């Protein structure tokens, strides 16, 4: 499973395990994400994809295993310290600061970049004002980057869903992360919005040089944007490869569509998007 | 009765209202009419009796603003902690008591050292600083002991732990300082009154009001301008999302308790200056007043805490003279709490979210 690659992995996960009481959510998860790549994680519902994300971002504490970012161990650190190491993320169900405006959300995302002290802020010194101005300009720049410059003064909770997702990405990007982790960014998007998202992810990688890891069910998006795909099934990694390899893999299709008869265990819930998406993908890649 | 008001122009409004109403509506209506009648009759009677002059009412108003600003300082501590943790800090009143006693000992020390006599103007900030420091420290300890262990657990345990902390502080103070009333040594310049546009106002009231305004302005500046303020808002809205943009949630919570405690310390010192005497049990009733002010204004809302404090203070100061006097009660001022809390209950019946609060359903949806 570990193919030799010339670029050093930015993220290295070894033997990751998470149990909630007696329920093992994930085990033996090894994952290498190459710097500057777009890496997708797919798999049926309940396969442990989000749990893996949560462990990497220290949102939950892993039960075992090691997580390294650029060669430095980050497992066991508190969430805000992991964030300061340069991992930013979005959530499956958007988690913005709902009663703040668009620009305020992005300003909070710059928290760790700001240096002005308490007294400088109270006294309104030159440095504080300069920094405040820069922060606003940066915030506006990133709102523009994700395509919602007109949302700066709107409350996050009043924005349409698609714009909330974009705002969440802007908030994640403004802190200059090394790696951006997107949890189902295309959920609830129509095909046009999906295409725009693919474009945005390509610009995040191309223009900002940020490595992107995404969990996604929309195969159209995954196949268009990912260089490597890791498939999760029942809390472990089923396989990993390029989009072409994954599409040709019988086991992946079996995992999505349920087991053939004779295999034990309950069939995992099939993913609504896949049966419809796979034929179109094949047509696209042919 | 917003329904009746809205449909007042349509025909058959009364029939429509009757059709829609249940016996609960009738009882509520009866309460409203009853309270309105009580207030109006009292008001008319009081004004007719003419016991108090206009100048008296102005001075009652000044007193209401003074005590109201002290309530507001206490209310801010409740509302800040609630905003961040969605929990009430039931030991907050006793933090204020500790601040008040710290101010007492600081003032005593300064008096013995002769500083109070030599530099009476300098002594006040020092006494306030002692109250703030003590309040902040005790508040941080409460966070560490009663709240931190439960940070990631959905539990009401912190509430009962905070009540425990309240008793610990109260009875520790009782054991150490005794139950008798204590008074700050006199600051010479604060004994008199100021005359202003024909009014005579005791200096401590002016000092307390001005000091409270300065502290409140400082707090608003912190919340609006600083990184800490932004981080506090972010943690209040979504603690996990805040951590994932690099905010140290624990540090923000500690800072919130410290600021709330410092303001309670200021409130304790100002209370002692205005009312001249303090006891180890003052934390309970003033804590309840501050809590009531926070709820009245809309808990979780800083402006609401300020407004709630002032409204409660004014109701207590003006209510007895305005309303109860008309009923020729023997000692109307003894009933100020009846007025204050009666008003609290009435406002919350009509506006459960408080004066400036948002409806919880809308906010959390």
Automatic annotation (TrEMBL), chain A:
Pfam families associated with the record: ABC_tran (PF00005), BCA_ABC_TP_C (PF12399)
Domain of life: Bacteria
GO MF annotation terms: ATP binding
Keywords of the record: ATP-binding, Nucleotide-binding, Transport
Annotated ranges, domain ABC transporter: 11-259
Protein name, UniProt field: ABC transporter ATP-binding protein
Taxonomic source organism: Ancylobacter crimeensis
UniProt lineage: Bacteria, Pseudomonadati, Pseudomonadota, Alphaproteobacteria, Hyphomicrobiales
TrEMBL record, chain B:
Keyword tags: Amino-acid transport, Cell inner membrane, Cell membrane, Membrane, Transmembrane, Transmembrane helix, Transport
Listed InterPro entries: ABC_transp_permease (IPR001851), BCAA_transport_permease (IPR052157)
Subcellular location per the Swiss-Prot or TrEMBL entry: Cell membrane
Domain of life: Bacteria
Family annotation (Pfam families): BPD_transp_2
Record-linked PANTHER family: BRANCHED-CHAIN AMINO ACID TRANSPORT SYSTEM PERMEASE PROTEIN LIVH, HIGH-AFFINITY BRANCHED-CHAIN AMINO ACID TRANSPORT SYSTEM PERMEASE PROTEIN LIVH
Family per record: Belongs to the binding-protein-dependent transport system permease family. LivHM subfamily.
Protein name as it appears in the record: Branched-chain amino acid ABC transporter permease
Organism per entry: Ancylobacter crimeensis
Lineage: Bacteria, Pseudomonadati, Pseudomonadota, Alphaproteobacteria, Hyphomicrobiales
